[in-house]
Amino acid sequence: MTAAAARRSMTRRLGQVRTALGLHSPPSCRLPPRTHPFFNGRLEAPGPLDNTPMSNRNSLTRLTLTYTLIAALILGALVAEMACYARNTPANHPAWVSGKQLLRTSIMGSGEGFTRRNIFCRNQLNLGEWHGFNEYLLNNVWPFHSLSASFCIEDNAYLYVMFNRTAESFRAVRLSRNPALPSALVRATPSGQFLDRQPLNDLEIEPGWHKVLLESVSDGIELRIDGRLQCQITVAPLSEQVIGFRSGLQPAFVDDVVALDPSNSVVINEDFRNDDRWLSQTAACALGIFALTWTLLGLAFWIGISAKKRLFATVLASALMTAVVSGLLGFDYFYWSSRYPYEVFTPWQRGDLEANGVERLRCTMFDAFGAFDADDASLPEHEHLDGRYQRICQFLAVSRREDSGEDVIAIQFGPDGYSPARVRPTADAVREYVARNPGAYRVLWFGTSQAWGAGATHEHDRMAVRMHEILLQKTEGKMRLHTFNCSVRGSTPAKLLQRHRDITHFIEPNLMVVDLSNNGPQESFADELRSIVDLARQDGVNVLFVLEPNTSELGSGALIQKHATMRLVAEQTDTPVCDMHSYFGEMARADGGILWWDQVHMTSYGQKLAAEFIAAEMIERFGVPVVK
Fold first, then answer.
1. Is the backbone of residue 400 left (phi > 0), alpha (psi -120 to 50) or beta?
2. In the chain, what are the domain boundaries?
3. Cα–Cα distance measured from residue 120 to residue 199, given in angstroms and rounded to the nearest whole number
């Protein structure tokens, strides 16, 4: 068969296939020449006859090209916006640092919130997310001139607008809708203790969004709410300082933050959108959509679809895709991004969370846009302290160290101050340490993350260390006192009981402080407490129960049940009880400072109060012998 005959045979077969598919029935085996949509020249194309006049066909092609370009830009912008919003996390906002990241060790939500979107849901700073009590500082040390921001606080919520923050102190305006903590001007230590508090009795915050402005004037700083002058703060702005925002447990929102230095240069103009690389993402998405669309149009031309039908299909497909992407963006913006879509989630959970199927699909879809993230966004949150947050850490004199949480910490003070000994959690290591340090009065501190000291800014701020220091001061340093912090973060009473049987009872303490209630099931709590007391009594050890406190801003039904169980066991075993939960309720009403980082973990000031309260209870109930 000759080449010409082969071509005719192939053309005939293609015609038969098209006829079977119902496309066209060509009048002859040889198709007439036609105009290719990408060129002006005449080409021989193996396609069916398009009866559209040539001038109309070229006009439709140009119209299709123009419409495709416009649709690609619109759809590309929507996809880019969706991708930016899908990855709008604190990791992609290097201009801000969470106060929880500056603590000595991580607490609930400090790591999870850094890589998840709840904090910046709906492109706002949501300070009530991830267990609340969030603090976000501008990652910049600068001379203050003015700070303005939009804010919205819900019922029983409050917002601190902080300025003049250094390693020694800070000032703040508390804007409040919480009757127990009314609006006020405060001056505080970095630990959270108020040095001065001036009520703003005439300031009432209504529901909805408002504008706050702090502006430096000749004789101080003016505070304006919605343009109205509220007061003048007679303090000079510092030449080097940090600003920020902090809330309580209830939702408080911040947006449109603008800060100016004395030369009126913009230090920050923040709307909390993840849009630094939006244009490049839009261009990449639009180019990809345009290329895909014209590839499909070329295929449609090749199989013989007319210019009119190609234009109609382009309009219909682009409109449908725009509607779908807009709907998905709206669903994510108004609903999904505010959820906690994890298979297993409790308020106390730390570490990696397993997302449910929908969230895994969403993350997989937008993983490809990770190339547009901030340069160091993929690093774990604690690794940024030596990178993007190094300057502010040095200025505020804070450092981060993730302790194992399993070691037995022997609290001691040397000539240079606090110098703990970390004892490996084995029976042999504990016995060896005790043998090297005989003849002391030993206190064993027993609990979970609260008793361990999570939430302290510095290691020496932890409540067990503070209590040890208070007892030494009470005896003017004449006591040979050893305090062992045997608490384990994230543990349960059952695990702690087993640890005490296997390891920590070799400390041979004189007194055992048991600070429990939050962790573990209610059903076995009473039996576990009795076992702890029985084991201690067998060794001749005194026991003090501490009712583990939570913030008074949280409903505490389950916690109160645990406290009732502790009181019952205490009555049955003749064990004294230290009601620290009620004490912290009183301290919250006294409004002497900032007490909490979340529902259960205290600030350094909160831990100082806890140590003072427990030390006083110990001395009152047991006395503290002086061992020479």
1. beta
2. 14-49, 54-93+274-385, 125-270, 404-622
3. 31
Instruction: Report the relative pairing of strands 421-423 and 441-447 from DSSP bridges.
Output: unpaired
Q: Pick from 72, 9, 12, 61: which is nearest to 34 by CA?
A: 61
Provide the angle, in degrees to the nearest 10, between the axes of the packed helices 307-334 and 54-86.
10
Q: What is the DSSP string of 354-414?
A: -B-HHHHHHHHHHGGGGGGS-TTTTS-GGGGGGTTTHHHHHHHT-------S-SEEEE-EE
Long-range contacts from 316-320, C-beta under 8 angstroms, 24+ separation: 317/293, 318/67, 318/68, 318/71, 318/74, 318/75, 318/293
User: Running DSSP on this structure, what letter comes out for residue 31?
Assistant: P
Q: Which residues pair with 162 in a beta bridge?
A: 172, 244
User: Amino acid letter at 422?
Assistant: R
Task: Write the CB contacts of 331 (distance below 8 Å, at least 6 apart in sequence).
Answer: none
pLDDT digits (tens, 9 = 90+) for 273-285: 988 888 888 999 9
- Sequential DSSP letters for 51-115: -S-HHHHHHHHHHHHHHHHHHHHHHHHHHHHHHHHHT-SGGG-TTEEEGGGGSSS--TTTTTTTS
CATH code of the domain occupying 125-270: 2.60.120.560
**459 has a pLDDT exceeding 60:** yes
Distance CA 593, CA 14 (A): 84
pLDDT over 80 (residue 342): no
| Chain segment 411-445, per-residue pLDDT in tens | 888 777 788 889 999 999 999 999 998 878 899 99
Per the listing, tokens 């702890």 go with 532
- Average the pLDDT over 108-119 and give the result: 87
| pLDDT at site 350 | 45
- 144's tokens: 């203050």
Interval 64-89 mean pLDDT: 91
Three-class DSSP category at 47: coil
pLDDT reported for residue 307: 82
Exposed (0-12), middle (13-18) or buried (19+): which is 432, by Cβ within 10 Å? middle
pLDDT at 298 over 90: no
Kindly state the tokens that stand for 608.
Answer: 């100082």
- The CATH code belonging to domain 404-622 is 3.40.50.1110
* Nearest to 124, CA basis, from 255, 319, 289: 255
Q: What are phi and psi of 408, to 5 degrees?
A: -85, 120
Q: N- to C-terminal Cα distance for the chain?
A: 115
Whole-number pLDDT of residue 294: 87
State both tokens at 371: 């190339």
Res 473 pLDDT > 90: no
Which runs of consecutive H residues, i.e. helices, occur in 478-524?
Answer: 493-502
- Token reading at 147: 């700070």
Residue 414 forms beta bridges with which residues? 417
Distance CA 48, CA 27 (A): 10
Look up residue 27 and give its DSSP letter: S
State what percent of residues in the chain have pLDDT above 90: 55
